[in-house]
Write a structure and sequence with these properties.
Elements (H helix, E strand, L loop, with lengths): L3 H17 L1 H16 L6 H16 L1 H7 L3 H10 L12
Length: about 90
């Protein structure tokens, strides 16, 4: 895992792209939904990568909520997933 400041720099670089193209967020939500619904088809390495990515999102949740996602997007995501899913933890 890169140093925290490197991760933060990466997130700062990604943020304008997501902000400039809200469709990317909707596409991402759709893709993440499909991955979640097909979790049993993923091999062990893919499941491990998915968990690592989810942990990454949870670690940076405050920044993501504040800078990337709006409340409407988060509400849409929470409608798609059960309360145990990481979207529910993306709150300030």
């Amino acid at each position: 895992m890169p140093a925290d400041r490197d991760v933060h720099t990466m997130l700062l670089r990604v943020r304008p792209l997501l902000g400039a193209h809200p469709e990317i967020m909707r596409d991402y939500l759709f893709y993440r939904s499909e991955v979640e619904f097909q979790r049993d088809r993923l091999d062990e390495a893919e499941q491990k990568a998915l968990k690592r990515f989810d942990r990454f999102l949870v670690k940076w949740r405050a920044w993501i909520v504040r800078e990337v996602y709006d409340e409407a997007t988060l509400a849409e995501a929470r409608d798609q997933f059960g309360e145990g899913h990481w979207w529910w933890r993306l709150k300030d």
